[in-house]
Amino acid sequence: MSPLEEHLSVTFLLNSLEFGGAERAFVTLANELQRSGVEVEILGLRKGGELCSAISQDVRVRVLGGSLPVRLSRLSQHLRRRTPRVLVSGLNEPNLIASPCSAGAGRRPPKVVLTQHTHLSEDARRSPSPRVRYFPALFQLAARSADAVVAVSDGVRSDLVERHRLDRARVHVIHNPLPLEHVQERSREPVEHAWLRPDRSTPVILSVGRLHPAKGFDVLIRAVSILRRARPARLLIVGEGAERSGLEDLIRREGLSGHVQLCGFQDNPWKFMARTDVFAFSSRWEGFGVVLVEALAVGARVVATDCPTGPREILDGGRFGALTEVDDPEALAAALAAVLDDEVCSRLDAVER
Q1: Cα 349 from chain centre
Q2: In the structure, what pLDDT confidence band is assigned to residue 178 with cuts at 50, 70 and 90?
Q3: CA distance linking residue 297 with residue 277, whole number of Å
Q4: Are the C-beta atoms of 140 and 116 separated by less than 8 Å?
């Protein structure tokens, strides 16, 4: 154990342990840091979430709960009592309360690191929630008193610096982590879904993510409807979220009830990725898009929207997968068809890449 690890304690602050890219990144980091000898805990503003089972038993988990004033008070008291060396926050409310609560943590306040997991400008412009429109200005204020800001992609960093006037020297790019060996090992577990049998005659398209407008699953469903006019295909969407009922209505309206399934949360999405004919990424905006990295890691062929931000960085401008226009079901259908029809396109070998 290094001298730094010997005395290092880290607290992660997030909304909850519900399924999401930022939440999964925090769980991965917490588990790996704990295994390396760092004292780690996760603080959630709300109870529960599908990712609770993914956390190492050695990582402490606490829930603050209550209204915003109650959470502020409880967080300040907790930081005074626990005195972690570093407080790492992610997502809207945690990023806003981390610095003021740290300042009230007594004579040994932790260093505060705010992490930005989305393209802030696009999130504010496109989000259906009116409150999100005010977040860029509030995040600017919070970032001034933080010790550092982490962006999960170069595009997120550029947005923070160019559009929101953060000091470039204080914004660091750290891509979301991927436990490669774990992902590849679990990708070899059996899948019992009838559509994914090795002897299937109908190709299967897969997508993974929260059922949220940012993910563009409505566009993907329309793209599959267009694709099916020329060839058979099926679509599986792994994930859960508030848009489920709307997507189910769209599936019925498009006449796709026997051809598109919403599979809900799966603790092992990688075994689905490893057996799909093409992995589709249809987001309108992102921070990074770690599911693209996961799909490549298990050898899936990939089609992705060239959204802000992440896919262009991950796919090296189209070298490792097709890039297509955002919010364009016709273009997405054409890209999917091109991959499915390309008989000489073999699956990527994750180890060689």
Answers
A1: 23
A2: very high
A3: 15
A4: no
Tokens 């590849």 correspond to: 184
Residue 349's contacts (CB-CB under 8 Å, 6 or more residues apart) are: 299
Tell me: pLDDT of 297 over 90: yes
pTM as predicted: 0.88
On the 0-12 / 13-18 / 19+ scale of CB atoms within 10 A, 198 is exposed
Give the DSSP H/E element, type plus range, for residue 134. none
* Residue 295 to residue 316: CA distance in whole angstroms: 15
CA-CA distance, 282 to 275, in Å (whole number)? Answer: 19
What is the rounded end-to-end Cα distance, in angstroms, of the chain? 31
Of the candidates 55, 59, 62, 29, the one whose C-alpha atom is nearest the C-alpha of residue 267 is: 55
Q: Could you tell me the CA-to-CA distances from 226 to 213, 222, 245, 327, 330 in Å, in that order?
A: 20, 6, 22, 14, 7
- At 17 the three-state DSSP class reads coil
